[in-house]
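Worked Example 4.2. Consider the chain below.
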Amino acid sequence: MNLDAGGSYASQPLRYANPVSLAVKFRQPRTPTHDGVAVGITSAATTPKVIQLRREEHTKVWRLFINNSETARSRPDAGLGTAPVHVRIELANRAVTFQVNGSALTLYSVKNGGRYSLTLTAGEVTAQWRLTAAASTAAVELLEARAHGTAGTRYSP
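Applying the procedure from the previous section yields the following structure tokens:
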């Protein structure tokens, strides 16, 4: 699936049982000049929780947004280039962790600079999430979007 610059994708609601891994694999044929891809999940709770990782390519950092408010960011790393990138969001009961290309992403709070961890409240953990992806200043090839829960169910666009 190809997303033009500014385009977006959202899956159908995904049912799962904890723990679950929600993953998106994408490739950007051109390295973005500014903002890169955004990958996230949206809960189907009464008050939805939107968790989104956004790649800021010019500074080479990942930024974490919760309900569209930036809460944490990574230290600068190597540029993503045009190779396929795997982003995984792991939900283990109420704890949420992030992986990029198989490595855990270390995030730091934008408020105090300390290490950041994300834990959902009991009310925010629901049985359905939507995977999302969006392009910003460059087109994105969405190669795969999937969820693996205890049932091992696989979803792809």
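Residues 152-157 have pLDDT under 50 and may be disordered. Residues 25 and 86 are 4 Å apart (CA to CA). Compare this with Example 4.1 before moving on.
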